[in-house]
Amino acid sequence: MDLWRRLIVVLWTVSSIPHSFGMAVSEQTDDSCPTLKVEDQRFSDFLDRPLEITGFDLTEKFLHRKGTITENLPSFRLGSSPLNKPTKLIFPNGFSNEYSLVTVFRVRRTTKKGRWYLWQILDQSGDTQVSVVVDGGKKVVEFSCRSLLKSVLRYTFKRRDLHTLFDRQWHKLGISVQSNIVSVYMDCRLIERRLTDDKDSLNYGGQTLIATRMEDGRPVDVELKQIIIYCDPYMVEMENCCELQEPKCETKKMFNETSPPLDPTQLPVMLPQPSSKPIDRCHCPVEKGELGSEGKEGLIGEKVSTPISSRHVFCT
């Protein structure tokens, strides 16, 4: 009987180890991402967003000299000093394996056809672990990372909709990175989605760079308003593009605000109308992201069965 009891205790202990380990990893991931203060008007009111938004504002960590202060979101002057810092300083406790990168910028005449790093993390040897490349010559956006076998996984997004990214106007570019999917958004619209191989975890002992020329590591000649990393791959879907619109979007009232009571004397007198059946005049298609079909390394040539995009369309 004692032998059976000991065996049961051993089996229970072994079975509980993975669960405890998983909890520890989850707690570490939560602690790695600090609370991020962002404006409410950045997000669409009809989408549910987390009560607490976490992430990193790379513009605050890298840039100090701003443009005109009369703008709602001032642009940054990149200067001539290299925009690189120790990764451990930018992400002291690392960050989530699934995340969103959102940036607002416009290219200038000298960089309209240039190829440069929007974001890059190097390891201790100076090799790229993850990067986002903007290529004006080919009018494409590239996302690259390391696989579990340490090989380079590169995914090129080249839908024609991306061509306007290089027209020297302000645009919002978003990258959503999930475990096996990478999606590109431009101006709050899904452009393209790709299936990916499993990605290797990041080493934080190297350097992190933003807005860097490939040829000499100097800042690229672009105007930058903001570059943010959210510790949630779905935040890029929740952002609107109010900062790109003229006139700017008005701040929406919260749902729990109460409206003043109606004054019956101010209501117009309505003549009785014959009853009729309501007519549905609204047909709102649901946007579905398409997967690229090119035979790039690491691409799985199949469709995603369930659309991931959560954009909404309202009709009147």
Would you write up a description of this structure?
There is one protein chain. By secondary structure, this protein is α+β, with helices and mostly antiparallel strands. 14% of the residues lie in helices and 25% in strands. The protein contains 4 helices and 12 strands. Strands 1-12-3-8-9-10 form a 6-stranded antiparallel beta sheet. It has a 6-stranded antiparallel beta sheet with strand order 2-11-4-5-6-7. Strand 5 and strand 6 form a beta hairpin. The protein is globular, with a radius of gyration of 24 Å. The C terminus is likely disordered.
List keywords for this structure.
single chain, 316 residues, alpha+beta, 6-stranded antiparallel beta sheet, 4 helices, 12 strands, 25% strand, globular, disordered C terminus
How would you summarize the topology of this molecule?
Blueprint: H1 2-32, E1 55-57, H2 58-62, E2 84-86, H3 87-90, E3 99-107, E4 115-122, E5 128-135, E6 140-146, E7 152-157, E8 171-177, E9 181-186, E10 189-195, E11 207-213, E12 222-230, H4 235-238
Antiparallel strand pairs: 1-12, 2-11, 3-8, 3-12, 4-5, 4-11, 5-6, 6-7, 8-9, 9-10
